[in-house]
Amino acid sequence: MSLFRLDSSIRTEGSVSREVADTLERAYLDQHPGGAVVRRDLVADPIPVDAWPTAALAGFTPEDQRTDAQREALGLAARLADEVLRADAVVLATPLYNFGVSQHLKGWIDLLIADPRFAPGTAPLAGRPVALVVARGGGYGAGTPREGWDHATGWIVRILADVWGADVTLIEAELTLADVQPAMAELRPLAAQVRAQAHERAETVGKDFGRTAA
Fold this sequence. Notes:
Elements: E1 2-7, H1 16-31, E2 36-41, H2 51-58, H3 68-85, E3 89-97, E4 100-101, H4 103-114, E5 129-135, H5 153-163, E6 167-173, H6 188-213
Parallel strand pairs: 1-2, 1-3, 3-5, 5-6
Antiparallel strand pairs: 3-4
């Protein structure tokens, strides 16, 4: 029984998405001490920028005509797919960058889709529990000045749930820059409350994952 964890924050220290994912992972292991955790850090071990276009073009190339680079890219896509498919539960931890998807996470998703098992119409994660941990520096909720500016979360959920068929639970932490941005000082109490709620949610989901795996 195993949990697959993916991190994509460029910060290894002070990252809220990693911090909340840590809480989920601990809760999972507390509930299921014998469970394994397979981790992939897309910043410490980034996906090569040319991997996806190389793999995508390989899909249109007869197998006996593929280049070594194309075979290598497809092999990497297959290894990434194997990591996910072997897990009983999945947690993806990501920040919102420049109102969109982290380039590290986007590259990973694109390369996975290049593997036939993750192509549209396959639903490889049908029924599998997936937690999506999202950290946003500002506030993007209804009625805020930047409502609708988060162009990442909806897209990621669409891929996980509608393309891959996963049972997705969203865990969100907002206002994560309040502690370091003087202009957001008055929001610090709210930021602390939202962060605490994200950790509580992550602990609950981690325990549920542990029970599911057991």
